[in-house]
Amino acid sequence: MFRAYLKTAFVALLLTASVTAQAQEDDHSNDHDNHGAVAQDGGRINTSEEITSYIEHHLKDSHDFHLFSYTNDAGERVHIGFPLPVIVWTSEGLKTFMSSAFHHDDDGNVIVEKGGVDLVKYHTKIYELEAGATAIEFDEEHHPVNASRVLDFSITKSVFGLLLIGLLLVYLFGRLARQYKTRSIPKGSGRVLEPLVLYVRDEIARPNIGVEKSKKYMPYLLTVFFLIWIANLLGLTPLGFNITGQIAVTVCLALFTFFIVQFSGNKDYWKHIFWMPDVPVLMKIVLIPIELLGIFTKPFSLLIRLFANITAGHFVVMSLIALMITLKAQFGAVGSTSISLFLALFISVIEILVAFLQAFIFTMLSALFIGMAVAEHDHHEHTGTGEEDVDEVRERFV
After folding, report:
1. What average pLDDT does this structure show over 327-347?
2. Residue ranges per domain, the chain?
3. How far is CA 248 from CA 141, 260, 360, in A?
4. Contact assessment for residue 241 and residue 16, using Cβ atoms and an 8 Å cutoff
5. I need a labelling partner for 339 at 20 to 30 A (CA). Which of 70, 109, 302, 323 fits?
6. Is 273 in contact with 288 (CB distance < 8 Å)?
7. Reading across the β-sheet that carries 93-98, which strands appear in turn?
8. What is the model's pLDDT at position 31?
9. What is the model's pTM?
């Protein structure tokens, strides 16, 4: 498996490097509030500002699946990719169309008229223009003054990736389940999945939740583990996925853990929060707000850790690939490309480990929080005599 992933990372890096070396700025890179820069020299990305803008665009979600762009012999920009469905709720109701209607514009220059409303896309967000407006306008703080945000239910690139992973998991685990009906040892993809399932059960679920109680939560833990792991691996391919690098995705995953923990909490769990046993009354009053705050800081740490690590990893990899451009003047084309390739390949191999590690950490902490909520606590009442039964002391020692 490691060799296969290593080969995939190497091929992905070469493809990404070749595209980046000839990358040219799309129309949506023109940013009117100086958050980006207009690429010069026929759209090629040559400056650090243009590179930063390009990386920031890559890390965001998008309404179309854009692989790469190039300039043809006629000097026209050609975009390679495919559109995705746009589903928005406007003042005139629900409107649906394909993202190709925007013609890869992300600056609000292309107006899409659908059922009496004019829609524009600006910085990956879709706005509805007021009646009579021919272009989106902004105030000094760069807020739109003649347009309003619409409710966006579109199938974006991240949503498409989640649906793809979901279908893949249903297929793989459905196939594994069917194999157990006819054979004791699975084959094919099932032979790869089985040790991972056992690993989640024996090393994550049972030690933190318990042998019997963990059976109830295994479906959730397995789903979270494989969803995050596969999403992280897809993010290392040239397809441009950044699913777990979207804060909305990590928030939803953390909320699932949060609600499972709260609804699974037994009386001992809530008692330790609101009236901790064997603690002086004054200290109990002090600990109540701290414990209540801890209910929310636990899922917050889950979502921030996953989001920050994946986003930072993608930013570092793309920045290292961009060294072939920024260091070209100092080391030449061959030298800068060699340095970029070596460093980016090194980080990409580490990112393969990080992809698994982040899935493991999220699943482990989720199991730990669930285990804390369902654990049974035995509290012995103190008699105040200071004497202990000899048999109890001997049993505890043994």
Report:
1. 82
2. 85-154, 158-374
3. 25, 19, 20
4. no
5. 70
6. yes
7. 93-98, 85-90, 151-152
8. 38
9. 0.77
| Residues 323 and 51: beta-carbon distance below 8 Å | no
**Strand 85-90 with 151-152, pairing:** antiparallel
- What stretches of 36-110 adopt beta strand conformation (E)? 64-71, 77-83, 85-90, 93-98
pLDDT digits (tens, 9 = 90+) for 50-80: 777 777 777 888 888 877 777 777 777 777 7
Q: Both tokens of residue 196? A: 């991972």
pLDDT of residue 378: 62
Task: Quickly tell me which residue has 């690939």 as its tokens.
Answer: 321
If you ran DSSP here, which 8-state letter would residue 246 be given? S
Q: State how far the Cα of 196 lies from the Cα of 157, in Å rounded to an integer.
A: 28
Q: In this structure, are strands 85-90 and 77-83 parallel, antiparallel, or unpaired?
A: unpaired
Closest CA to 110 of 95, 127, 96: 127
- With CA atoms as reference, report the closest residue to 274 among 292, 252, 249, 295: 292
CA-CA-CA-CA torsion sign (101, 103, 104, 108): negative
For residues 142 and 139, give the distance between their C-alpha atoms in angstroms, rounded to a whole number: 5
Say if CB 104 and CB 79 are below 8 A apart.
yes
Mean pLDDT, all residues of the chain: 80
DSSP, collapsed to helix, strand or coil, labels residue 345 as helix
Is the Cβ–Cβ distance between 352 and 5 less than 8 Å?
yes
Rounded CA gap, 313 and 268, in Å? 40
Scanning the structure block, which residue is given the tokens 């992300």?
106
